[in-house]
Structures are given as structure tokens and as C-alpha cells.
Design brief:
Layout: E1 7-10, H1 14-25, E2 30-34, H2 49-58, E3 75-79, H3 80-83, E4 92-95, H4 101-114, E5 120-123, H5 130-133, H6 139-142, E6 145-150, E7 159-163, H7 169-181, E8 186-189, H8 198-216, H9 220-226, H10 239-245, H11 249-260, H12 266-270, H13 275-282, E9 295-298, E10 305-309, E11 316-318, H14 334-338, H15 343-362, H16 370-381, H17 387-394, H18 396-405, E12 428-431, E13 434-438, E14 444-446, H19 456-461, E15 467-468, E16 472-476, E17 481-486, H20 495-511, E18 514-517, H21 530-538, H22 542-560, E19 566-568, E20 572-575, H23 577-583, E21 587-591, E22 594-597, H24 611-621, H25 631-641, H26 649-654, E23 663-665, H27 671-683, H28 699-714, H29 720-733, H30 746-760, H31 764-776
Parallel strand pairs: 1-2, 1-4, 2-3, 4-5, 5-6, 7-8, 17-18, 18-19, 19-21, 20-22, 21-23
Antiparallel strand pairs: 6-7, 9-10, 10-11, 12-13, 13-14, 15-16, 16-17
Helix pairs in contact: 1-2, 8-15, 8-16, 15-17, 17-18, 20-22, 21-31, 22-30, 24-25, 25-29, 28-29, 29-30
Length: 782
């Protein structure tokens, strides 16, 4: 465990408060300090109102800064004038005040006067270099000082850049361990260069995209369509990203960067005055935090209409979804888009060529190796692939050749030698069953993972799956543990997954100790394949639908009662059927950013793969929960009929999807190793669970649920079809019309789930909901 037991954050702005929330989410007490509220009376509690208001805003933030609202109790709002002496009890002191060097250095002198010896002090700066921050300060302070650059929003962005060229290595290792294991961050060590890694390259990419779009006459919608999915970049694209970050930050960051960089740096040469940016800022169009930015909503219309700015004249017009040639290109076919001779191909080439070339030139200047640059862009800007990984997708030799043809000066790391022909260039190579990366000298070095990190991607490089079909694979992850991986689109569940899962159960039973269900996709599983369900319903193949429901029930029941432990390791969305996978597992090892729930009513359906049954079992078995015919069914009815989704693994524990003994992993890269360790622990003297009966309220409970739903319909909180679907949920949860004196078995409840599912899926309003979800990705309230 880390020696860091208490932390102080000084500066309660959006970033400072967000960092305090991340620390509280780790279960660590944190002091949040800001200046005295000038409007308060001297020596009254209101003097800490600035920090207190920041803490209160955390409870209302969107996206949520806290993984559970109870974590707010770990944050103590204070003010610098009255309470700075309290940081003497803190092991790590984070400065997060505005980017003003004089202000920061004055604060450091105050901190140094009261901090305890050996406590770590860091700055969250994104622009000021380390050597400037510590200039003139005692060597003892510099030895405990570093830059710890979090990314916004701090809870969700996994990157933590650390600059620590003068600091005590043991203190920095302690900080890195804490950030990794307890905050869930991936620590990247950066050199003391302007913008460090992610912002140095990321802002160059953003600014390049803006300049080239203006010069080549592209609309922002066209630019965002090209610089998103085809490049493995989030769908916000570049202009949507600027709106998200804040357009008003751009001039200051670009100005600071250009001032710190030499004149020959491509960043400086790219910089120019853009009147449109000045105009937008002066008129208050600074992005999503204001009345709009490159995109805005016209709220005079019902519903509000999205508008986009014209880069030439600054006028807003209705935002379009233009059919841009090449915008449907998949990232592994990006070379085809970059080779197009029209303006769309040329625009994408100009932006990505300059960006990738700049990334190659930064090796050795901002970080020691290409892996740090790749990780920084994946984790700091949510790129699916880092720049060097993109180069290999394109063909690094192909890229180098085309850069030369287009007049670029080839970066040293890409320069040809007699021993390395241009066509054979690769940033990453596999050798002796291990991934190697090219260093700054063109040599290949092994990529070593930290202890406790196990990635399925590495296993796949030197192993063939034990079983495989179009939707799933089974892998051997060592020590007698197998890993079942969903591989369908968005990891949706279909008959192929059910069939392979049944086969996998048989394989584990014969030769292995345990099964882990895990994948490295963005989401664990979004649930059942709705497209398949819709197609089957449209041709009225009701027997096929019932067979799919039955197959899912039988598969998950076999999973639950398998003679070996099953551990599910979710991250991201685990909805509907994905949640039902968790509910049938012996244990759950969840990444903290797991968002799970039984959401079927949102598409007009009911959980039918044992979800209702397992939620009832969990609430009936909850320690210290009231017993009797109604408490557990009432809570389960509430969660299912409202399609409640836990927005973290901590919230999932409150909803009883996770039980008290289920575990949470903070760092995503450690999830598979943790799940494997849990599976091996359970495998010792493992005994499958015993089947339990259910005492349910019957028709009287069903009537009570109906009365509650009628109230929501009258109040306008539920639609008529919400009521119809909820009554089907009520029929399952109450045990149907059974005699309340007779306990129901698991099979009885599965039968009720199946009957109600087959009834509601025929309803035209349910089919309308499914179709709307497939077309728009949003629920229909009908």
C-alpha cells in the first residue's frame, strides 16, 4: 500500500475540484483550499465559500465527477488564509491555481513554510516548465517537487503526465504507485518541454486541422466527419473537441507554446492570427460551457436545432450531416482516404501527415520513446491508436515515402539506412512472442508491461484461440484459467455467443480451473443484438425468438452452476444482457468505470435471460435488508421499471449488481490480472452455488405495482407504453398469479420472464422503440 494517506489540493476551480473528486473516489481524505471569499464576514465559516461552492458543484456535475455521492464526505473545503497550516498533515500537496508563474511561486514559498519534510508537492500546470516553477526556491523543495498534469475531466481521462527531472526518485515512485493503483491513472513520464507530450502534439493537430479547413474551404461538419472515425478519433472530431475543451483557452495555450518553442519548430511556423477565433471569444461563443462555439443550439426552435458556424464569415446555419466521400472509411483502410485526390482526401492527408511527421520529430524531445507518445494520445485525447500505431496501420514505410514525395523533411527516426530499407519500416514489431518498439536510434526494444498488468492483446500475439466464431473467442490466459471474449459489434449478445459459451463451459470443465469473461473493447456488452431481434420480429418468426430467449436462459443457468468459478470483469457499458452475464457470475471484478443495469424497458422489453430472477435473489440475500413478501420485489421493480443504470462500479454495488464481496479495480490495464487472481482464489475448494426458492407477493403485489405505475402516468412521469411494459415486469417480480404460500423455483421465474417477453415483443409500440433505438441510438418515449 502507498504511504500517501492524506492529500491537499490548492485551487478549487474546475480542475482542482475535479482532482479532489478523483482522490475522494479512491477513498482518500482530501483538503480543498482556495482563497478567502471576499464577500464573507471575517472569521466566519463563509470565508471558505469558494471551496465549499466548488464541492457542492461536484454533486451536480455532468458528467458525474464522483463515483458515489457519499465520497463527497472525504473532501474538506477550506481557505488558504485560515487553513494552510493544515497541509502539514498531508503527504501530497497539489497546486492547481491559474497559470501565473509569480502566483505559483509565491504559493510554493507559503507551502514550503508549513509542509512536513518529504511531502510531495506538485503542480497541475499544462504550460509552465518545471525549471521555471522551481527557479529561486530551495533545493530541498525542488527535490520533493514535480509536475502532475491531469486531463479534463479528471475522473474519466486516464492519463497523468509527470515531469520530475530534479525530484527524489523514491518520492516519485511512491506517487506513481499511488496514481496507478488507487487513482487508476496511467502515468507517463515526460521531459521538461513545452506542452509536455499530449498537448504538444494534440494542440498542434487541432490547430493544423483548423488552419487547413480554412485554407481548403471545408465546412466544420466535413472536417469533423473526416477527422474522426476514419482516423480512429472520437466522433466529436476536431471542432467538436474545441467546443468541449473551450475555445477561449486556445489563444493563451498556443501563445504560450509558441513563446517557449524555437522559431523553426513546426508549431511556431503553423501559428497565425485567426480573426474568427477573436470574434467568437468576444461574443461569448467559447464552447459548450457558454452559449455555443463552432456548434450551437438554436433554442428558439422546438426542439432546439443544432447550428454550425461558417469558417469564412462566422455566420451560423443549420448543422448538416454531409455525405463526405471517404468519411465512412475504417481506420485500417485509412491509406485509401489519404490517397484520394479530391479535397477531402487532400485535407485529411495534409492534417494527418503534418501531425504524424511532428510526432516522429518529438521522439527524444518530449519523451524517451514512441510508446509514451502513443499512450499519451490514446489516453489524453481518446485516440483509438497513437500516432506511431497509426503509422504502422498506414505502413510506416509508405508514409515516409509519401512524406518525402510531398516535400516533408523526413524525421530522423524514419530516415532510411542501408540496413533498413524504407519499405520495411515499422514502429512496432513482434519478436520472440513479444512486442518490440523502435527507439530513437532505429533499434527495436522489448515493450515491458508493469507488474500486475495482463493484456489480452498481448496474449493474442503469440496464441491461437481455443475456440472461435464470428462473435466470440476463448483464450488461455495461463495457470488453468481461460478467458471468454465477446467480439461482436459493440459486444452485443447473439446466438453465436451463447453457443460458444456453452462449448467453453465444457472445455473448462474438462481441463481447467476457472473462466474469466472479459474483453478489451470500449464496452463489456451493450446487451442483446436488437437488430437480430427486430429482423426476426418483422418476419414474425416468434418461435425463433423464443428459442433465442430459451438458449440464453439455459446458457446463463449453466454458467451459474458450472463446477468451476466464473468471474466477469466488465468495463464501460454492461447493459441488459451484458448485466445478466454479471448477475450469473460467481464473482465480479469490475473496473471502476463500469456502467451497468437492466435497461430492457427502454426498448419496450423485459429482462428474460434470468435478470429479474437474479436481482430478486441479490436483494433477498442483501445483509440487513428487511425480509418479507414486498421489500426486495419493490426495490427490484423500481430498478428494472426505471431502467436504472449505475454510473460507476460503486453505484452498481449500491444497486446490488455487485455484492459486498465483489471487487473493484481502479486501473483498466490491471483488470484482467485482477480477475484472474480472483478466479484462482475461488478455484480453491470451489463448490457451485445452491438453487434457492423465492417467496413473492403474488397478485396483491402485482396490484400494488400497478397502482404505483398509474400514479406515474397521471403525473406525466411515465407514458402509456411505459405502463404496459412495467406491468409485465410486475408480473414477473410478483410471481404472477401464483399462490403466495407456495415458493417459486428458479425455473418458475425463468418461465415467467420468457412468457412476458414473448408477450411484449409482439406489441407494436415495443417494435417502434426497438426500431428507433437502432436508427438513432436514443430511446423513444411512446
Amino acid at each position: 500500500m502507498s504511504n500517501i494517506k492524506q492529500i491537499a489540493v490548492i485551487g478549487a476551480g474546475a480542475m482542482g475540484a475535479g482532482i479532489a473528486a478523483v482522490i475522494a473516489n479512491a477513498g482518500v481524505p482530501v483538503l480543498l483550499l482556495d482563497r478567502v471569499d471576499e464577500h464573507s464576514q471575517e472569521k466566519q465559516p463563509e470565508r471558505s465559500n469558494i471551496a465549499r461552492n466548488a464541492v457542492n458543484r461536484l454533486l451536480k456535475s455532468n458528467p458525474e465527477a464522483l463515483t458515489h455521492k457519499r465520497n463527497i464526505k472525504l473532501i474538506t473545503p477550506l481557505n488558504i488564509d485560515d487553513h494552510l497550516h493544515l497541509i502539514s498533515e498531508c503527504d501530497w500537496i497539489i497546486e492547481a491555481v491559474s497559470e501565473n508563474l509569480a502566483l505559483k511561486q509565491n504559493l510554493y514559498k507559503q507551502i514550503d513554510a508549513v509542509r512536513k519534510p518529504g511531502s510531495i508537492v506538485s503542480s497541475n500546470t499544462s504550460t509552465l516548465p518545471l525549471h521555471c516553477l522551481v527557479q529561486g526556491l530551495p533545493e530541498s523543495f525542488a527535490a520533493d517537487f514535480c509536475i502532475s498534469h491531469f486531463f479534463n475531466p479528471p475522473r474519466y481521462m486516464r492519463l497523468l503526465e509527470i515531469v520530475a527531472e530534479k525530484a527524489n526518485p523514491e518520492a516519485i515512485q511512491q506517487l506513481e504507485n499511488f496514481a496507478d493503483l488507487q487513482l487508476g491513472k496511467t502515468v507517463i513520464h515526460c521531459k521538461d518541454s513545452p506542452g509536455f507530450i499530449a498537448n504538444r502534439l494534440g494542440i498542434f493537430w487541432i490547430y493544423c486541422a483548423l488552419v487547413e479547413a480554412i485554407d481548403m474551404g471545408l465546412s466544420i461538419e466535413e472536417a469533423d466527419a473526416l477527422l474522426s472515425k476514419p482516423c480512429g478519433i472520437p466522433k466529436t472530431g476536431v471542432f467538436g473537441l474545441m467546443d468541449l475543451v473551450g475555445i477561449d483557452l486556445m489563444p493563451a495555450i498556443v501563445g504560450a507554446m509558441c513563446q517557449a518553442l524555437p522559431e523553426h519548430d513546426p508549431f511556431v511556423q503553423l501559428q497565425r492570427h485567426i480573426p474568427l477565433i477573436d470574434k467568437m471569444i468576444s461574443q461569448g461563443y467559447t464552447g459548450r460551457k457558454s452559449k455555443g462555439g463552432f456548434y450551437r443550439l438554436d433554442r428558439s426552435q422546438t426542439p432546439p436545432a443544432k447550428e454550425a458556424i461558417c469558417l469564412n464569415n462566422g455566420d451560423y446555419t443549420p448543422a448538416l450531416r454531409p455525405k463526405v466521400p471517404g468519411a465512412d472509411t475504417r481506420v485500417h483502410k485509412l491509406r485509401h482516404l489519404l490517397s484520394r485526390e479530391d479535397k477531402y482526401g487532400q485535407y485529411t492527408w495534409r492534417v494527418m501527415a503534418q501531425t504524424l511527421c511532428y510526432a516522429a520529430n518529438l521522439v527524444g524531445e518530449v519523451a524517451e520513446d514512441i510508446t509514451s507518445i502513443d499512450a499519451a494520445m490514446r489516453l489524453g485525447y481518446n485516440w483509438k491508436y497513437g500516432p506511431f500505431e497509426l503509422m504502422d496501420i498506414l505502413g510506416t514505410g509508405w508514409l515516409a515515402e509519401h512524406l518525402q514525395t510531398d516535400g516533408f523533411s523526413l524525421p530522423p527516426i524514419l530516415a532510411t539506412t542501408a540496413r533498413r530499407p524504407l519499405y520495411s519500416l515499422q514502429a512496432y514489431k513482434e519478436h520472440s512472442e513479444q512486442l518490440h518498439f523502435m527507439d530513437v536510434y532505429g533499434r527495436y526494444q522489448p515493450l515491458i508491461r508493469p507488474d500486475g498488468v495482463l493484456l489480452l492483446a498481448d496474449i493474442k500475439r503469440h496464441q491461437q484461440p481455443l475456440l472461435k466464431n464470428s462473435s466470440a473467442s476463448l483464450w488461455n490466459i495461463g495457470d488453468g484459467v481461460l478467458c471468454f471474449e465477446f467480439t461482436s459489434k459493440m459486444n452485443s449478445l447473439d446466438p453465436d455467443i451463447m453457443a460458444l459459451l456453452q462449448q467453453s463451459i465444457a472445455v473448462v470443465k474438462r481441463n481447467h480451473k476457472a473462466l474469466v469473461i472479459y474483453n478489451e473493447g470500449e464496452n463489456f456488452s451493450v446487451g442483446a443484438n436488437l437488430g437480430l431481434a427486430m429482423f426476426t420480429a418483422n418476419i414474425a418468426a416468434w418461435q425463433d425468438i423464443e428459442a433465442m430467449v430459451m438458449a440464453g436462459q439455459q446458457t446463463f443457468k449453466a454458467l451459474k452452476y458450472a463446477p468451476f468459478p466464473v468471474v466477469s470483469a466488465p468495463s464501460g457499458l454492461a447493459l441488459g444482457g451484458g448485466c445478466e452475464v454479471l448477475l450469473h457470475s460467481d464473482a465480479i471484478q469490475a473496473h471502476i468505470e463500469t456502467y451497468t443495469g437492466l435497461v430492457e424497458v427502454g426498448v419496450g422489453l423485459v429482462p428474460a435471460w434470468g435478470g429479474c430472477k437474479e436481482m430478486l435473489a441479490r436483494w433477498q440475500q442483501k445483509p440487513n435488508y428487511p425480509q418479507g413478501p414486498m421489500p426486495a420485489p419493490a426495490k427490484v421493480f423500481e430498478l428494472i421499471s426505471t431502467a436504472a443504470v449505475a454510473k460507476s462500479a460503486e453505484q452498481a454495488r449500491s444497486n446490488q449488481v455487485l455484492r459486498q464481496y465483489d471487487q473493484i479495480t481502479m486501473n483498466r490495464d490491471r483488470l484482467l490480472a485482477d480477475a484472474k487472481a480472483t478466479a484462482l482464489q475461488l478455484a480453491k475448494n470451489y463448490q457451485p452455488p445452491k438453487s434457492a426458492d423465492f417467496n413473492l407477493p403474488g397478485s396483491s403485489g402485482k396490484l400494488a405495482f400497478e397502482m404505483a405505475v398509474n400514479g406515474f402516468v397521471r403525473n406525466g412521469k411515465a407514458t402509456q407504453h411505459d405502463k404496459t411494459v412495467s406491468l409485465h415486469v410486475a408480473d414477473i417480480i410478483s410471481g404472477g398469479d401464483t399462490d403466495v404460500s407456495k415458493p417459486l423455483s428458479e425455473d418458475d421465474l425463468l418461465s415467467l420472464e420468457r412468457q412476458n417477453f414473448m408477450s411484449i415483443i409482439r406489441h407494436p409500440d415495443t417494435l417502434a422503440r426497438i426500431e428507433h433505438m437502432l436508427l438513432t441510438g436514443k430511446p423513444l418515449r411512446n
